[in-house]
Amino acid sequence: MDPGPVESAPATSQSTRITQATAMAPTASSSASSPKSQPTQPTKEQLLEELESLLVQLERETKMKLGVENMMEVYIKDKKRTKDLEAQLDKYNKRIESLTKEIEQLRKSAGSAMPEVTNKLKEHRFVASTAFQASIAASNSSSTRPNVRPKPTPISSKSRQKSYQDSIAFADDDNRSTSVRLNEIMQVISRKDVDSNVILEQLDTLVRILRNTGDVAGHVSKDVIINSLRLCVADQRAPVRVAGFRALRHAISSADDVRRMMNMQLDIFIAMSLAKESSQDHEREQALKLVRAFIENDALPDVPQSVVRALVAIAEQPNDKFRNICLETLAEIAIFHIPLVMETGGLRIMTQALLDGQRSLVDVLVHAFTYILDSPSTRCLLRPGVELEMIISPFLDTNRGPNYEERLQNSCKVITLLMKSWSGVFYMCANDLRAARSVVQALRLPSEDSKKVLLDMFFDIFYLRLPKDYSSFLSGRQHVAHIAASSAQVDDGVEGLNTTSASNAYSRTSGSGPAILNGGFLANAISGDLANVRADNTHKNERLNMMDHHLTMILIIFVDAGILMALVDMVKSDDIYISRKATLLIGEILQLSTKLLPISMATQVQSLPKLFALASSFDDEQVRHNATTALAHIDRLSRIRTRYLSQASVDNKQEREATAKRNQEKVHEVKKRMGINIDDIHFRQLIMDTQILNTKDYTKWNWENILELLQGPLLHPKRLDEAMRGSKFIKRLLAFYRPFSHRFSDINASKANFTRYVNTGCVLFSTLLSNPDGIRYLGENKVLIQLSEALRELDPLNHDPETEPIFSSERMESTLSCGYFTLLGTLSKYKEGFRIMEKFKIFNLFYQISELKARDDLKIAIITNMDYSLDGHPRVLLSKIMTSGYNPIRLFSTKQLGAVLHSSEREYNGWIIRLLVTQLYDPNLEVCQMAVSLLDEACEIPANLEFLVKCRPSLDHLGELGNPLLLRFLSSSTGFAYLNELGYVQKEMDDWFENRNQHYVTQLEISLHRALINTPNKGTANPFEERIHSEHNHEAMQPGDGWTPPHFYGELTRTEEGCMLLKEKGHFQLFASFIRNYSLDDRDFETILRLKATLWAVGNIGSTRNGLPFLEEEDIIKDVINMAEGSDILSLKGTCYYVLGLIAKTDQGVEILGELGWEGVVSPNGVVEGLCVPVNLREFLSIKRWEYQGALPPPPKLAATLKNDETARVILKNVGDMSNHIIANEASKNLARLRMRYPEYFSRADIFYSVMQMLGCYHFRFAVRSYILDAFDLRFTTDNIKDLDDVQASSSVVAPDEEIDTSAAETDEAEQGKNEEDGEPDIPTPKLHPSVIIVGGFQDN
């Protein structure tokens, strides 16, 4: 592809000339002929010539278009160049569209020349545009959004090839009926003398019909279609086989179609294709897609073992490019139909892949195993103590083979994932915590590599983050690790300790460094403070933290397994890295035990007698030093956490803010007194030390002294007046900030420059605004005049094209010009600053900027820096930007409103509520969802909830998105009355009772799974950049938060009116009755799902003070406990565990659970944590022992014609022996000799059928399968396939007790002796029992 600057001729010049010439011919002929004569059509040669010309032009224009797209990727940041390239791209798109229409017109009028036209089009790979593609192109060309440009998608040759293969070759304009066309296609593809290109064309048409026609069975029988396609997949030509498998995949609409395929022995051809070498990857790919179509259509019970064994053979190959997809397919089959994988040896391959496969596959395979472990009906297919115990083997292996480190990492990941699912947790705790104890004991092994990996694994299991400077501490360069607040923020009360004012986005995000200003202004504003807007922060005092509840059980398990003693032993290690990392882990475990465990258990964990003994022992100085260091670190960690928690325990944020404000005022007052106390000489010396009066070069100024003066002496009115009137100090300092002086405005953007110059400017403005003389002086200075003029430059009518504006996009990214908005934000904090900004019409200019479509960066700078504490223009500006512009800026401004809400979350915010109610009607659903989340959070304050109800918002148009807010309304009497008036409560209650409870379970379990596996956020998306196919962008899917979502019944019971309604409906009595009547032996999936939904409903009702009496009245809590301790469904045990945690959210619930043998967690100040653990841990964690119920695969069905054919029996015997790797080499040699001696046997359908049956019943490696299939020379024709069907009809399983006629064998022995004398190959012909032929070697267990 050459995207060079070749200027193409006008797209329609040559085609127009040809069309005109052909149009003139009829005119001339008609004048010479009779009036009744018809105009002549252009000749075939003219038509093909014109078509060739159009196709050549189309190819040229397409190349030019691709070249422009590639250049757009290169110059994506060059906006000017990008704009020109977009214009060129639009021009080429229009030319391509015009040429395509002309080619389509020519093709439709081809008449008798249609075959030649079709070949010409296929030669040039012309792909006609469908109506859908045309509509998309039209919408793109008519788009009027100049700034929000979709990122061009790179087009690779592979994607173009795939698009060509999977797209519709030509427009479907055949007017014949579907029945006629299908019959014609079946006739063509069933003939062997037809050219492959014709068959491919017909198969392509068939795929198009199958896609566009809902039910082709009404036109042609599916049996006829599948039978015809069977000839294609049996064809000798590879492209025909590929297209045949593709057509078969599209022909599947239900499990009945798969059953028809298996009856026609298509599994044989699938197995053959999957056994081909890498040169036939296209065929193998289509065969794999066909197998996956079986899974999608729930047809696995009809799939024979031969197909799955072919997948297993590929999955065994470590270097096969299809290994990963085969492993994933086996994992899916194991979930939907576990016996099929078990009987074919797939579980063994999956277990090996857990350690030897790629780490990206571990998640998929572990999830399959945890699903199998969940239910007793599938758990019995795993051998206890065999399958999953292999994952611990790398820690215990003394002989380290190749890839040991990779196997070790995979083993750690498997254990981590197992501990993050209830099935894995219970399995690791089976047999008195045997697996968990083995993992802990591995910490005592002498292998240093294993210890390091294991320590990292435990940090992951306990969801712990290392301190930011841990590397220095672990290496010994530091004696202590500086524990930051982040590591203590496991407790949600610590959130908000470092909250700053929402009026200054730069101060919040300054920690990001230069990225704030340089090349990332928008991205930083999005990914900084606003990314931390926690819309799901609601109800956390009533909702259950499932992450903490799960972690509580994990902590108890490993403490019981002896992890603390093992870590204390590691502290004695001579390796300082291991010693100190173990110290960190001990400290974190102790802190977790303080937070998550009941006091009775936590006190036992806190005592570390062995560590104290080591610290007081003088036997080994190094050991004593390590132990004392560990104790010092643990003590320091405890004191730091205590300080953070004591700060976080202050629930009233207003009180904290008032305290901080009082402290700040005291500091301010002290600085003022210092300014008063200094004498004139000292003051003048301070001014001289700043160097402002000595030079205008700001780089030589002492900015530390300047800041000290502004924050101290200049706060006194007398000193400030002297600096303004008596010297040029303030004048020169303000002159530095003038935009057109090009000093401050030209400084490069960096973190250091921003901190020095912008922060000093903010302090300068604050100092001047604190004094009436300073306000007057600032209003008369040129700095704000020039700032207003610089903002006016953004108006296209006022801008001088020869000069670059101060606030151009490039300068906003690369210089401190963006800092002016921070300075203006400082002005907006004061009423006097408001008046000054109004005087210079800065707010008017802001309104004009908000209407600029191409300057979203300025809009973000305005709304993130303005202060909204005063009612006035900033709130109006925010409202205007929230309701105008493109989707990204509306979403961003809504998030910014959330940041403002967080900064005053305990205050009444009526204006914020009004703006968010307006956003509920935004056309973009993301904006609506954000508004709903923020309103839900704001309604934690009763006054806000009452005000919102008075606004009477309509949420019907939001559907599911509005449910959280509607549920929030239920928690207040006013909201309940409002919803009841609308008829919402009765309707929603019936809906939840019927099916929404089950939907809640699905939503909760997905959220919990994402939270447990700690899904990383792969890159921060920029919402100002359009995404293509964003609905399929699974990487952007947000991980769950680990909190229980709001539940209708839980919210209903928060009011007396809701409890009365629940009692009238009688739903709770039905819930309790269903739980009591459930039999622990019932393992039906639908029943289990309904039971989980009922349990969650009961738990949410019991989590409220008003709802707990319902549980006491029915005495249902003991039934939940019995189910938690006695159920065989492991996920159901976990659900009961969470439900008991919900009940422990109230003091009365903790008391009831304590009486029933479950101890609740209560904080030192008497607040219930919503956590509970069983006193008898063994009874809860135990799993009933099960017997392995695996079965041998069924024997193969052999052709009846082979019963007395001893040569065929010997062939089968050697084929069977090749499944045994010990004798496979000898068997392969024998098979080669037999093929040389009896080549006709390797062309017989009955022998081939029997061999394929053996390949489907026993395990053969991939190379062996390929070798065996290559030995046969069977060309499938219609007759051969019919013979194959006849063999299948007459085949049967050979009974083990049948006798074999040995007379033929004796004759063969004599013949063999004669052959040996003649020097012919030695082929043994043993007299064997038929069972040996059937088994043929090792069997799968």
TrEMBL record:
<comment type="similarity">
    <text>Belongs to the RICTOR family.</text>
</comment>
<dbReference type="InterPro" id="IPR011072">
    <property type="entry name" value="HR1_rho-bd"/>
</dbReference>
<feature type="region of interest" description="Disordered">
    <location>
        <begin position="138"/>
        <end position="164"/>
    </location>
</feature>
<keyword id="KW-0175">Coiled coil</keyword>
<feature type="region of interest" description="Disordered">
    <location>
        <begin position="1288"/>
        <end position="1330"/>
    </location>
</feature>
<protein>
    <recommendedName>
        <fullName>REM-1 domain-containing protein</fullName>
    </recommendedName>
</protein>
<dbReference type="Pfam" id="PF14668">
    <property type="entry name" value="RICTOR_V"/>
</dbReference>
<feature type="compositionally biased region" description="Polar residues">
    <location>
        <begin position="154"/>
        <end position="164"/>
    </location>
</feature>
<feature type="region of interest" description="Disordered">
    <location>
        <begin position="1"/>
        <end position="46"/>
    </location>
</feature>
<feature type="domain" description="REM-1">
    <location>
        <begin position="37"/>
        <end position="112"/>
    </location>
</feature>
<dbReference type="InterPro" id="IPR016024">
    <property type="entry name" value="ARM-type_fold"/>
</dbReference>
<dbReference type="InterPro" id="IPR029451">
    <property type="entry name" value="RICTOR_M"/>
</dbReference>
<dbReference type="GO" id="GO:0031932">
    <property type="term" value="C:TORC2 complex"/>
</dbReference>
<dbReference type="Pfam" id="PF14666">
    <property type="entry name" value="RICTOR_M"/>
</dbReference>
<dbReference type="InterPro" id="IPR029452">
    <property type="entry name" value="RICTOR_V"/>
</dbReference>
<dbReference type="InterPro" id="IPR028268">
    <property type="entry name" value="Pianissimo_fam"/>
</dbReference>
<feature type="compositionally biased region" description="Acidic residues">
    <location>
        <begin position="1296"/>
        <end position="1310"/>
    </location>
</feature>
<dbReference type="InterPro" id="IPR029453">
    <property type="entry name" value="Rictor_IV"/>
</dbReference>
<feature type="compositionally biased region" description="Low complexity">
    <location>
        <begin position="19"/>
        <end position="45"/>
    </location>
</feature>
<dbReference type="InterPro" id="IPR011989">
    <property type="entry name" value="ARM-like"/>
</dbReference>
<dbReference type="Pfam" id="PF14664">
    <property type="entry name" value="RICTOR_N"/>
</dbReference>
<dbReference type="InterPro" id="IPR028267">
    <property type="entry name" value="Pianissimo_N"/>
</dbReference>
<dbReference type="InterPro" id="IPR036274">
    <property type="entry name" value="HR1_rpt_sf"/>
</dbReference>
<dbReference type="GO" id="GO:0038203">
    <property type="term" value="P:TORC2 signaling"/>
</dbReference>
<dbReference type="Pfam" id="PF14663">
    <property type="entry name" value="RasGEF_N_2"/>
</dbReference>
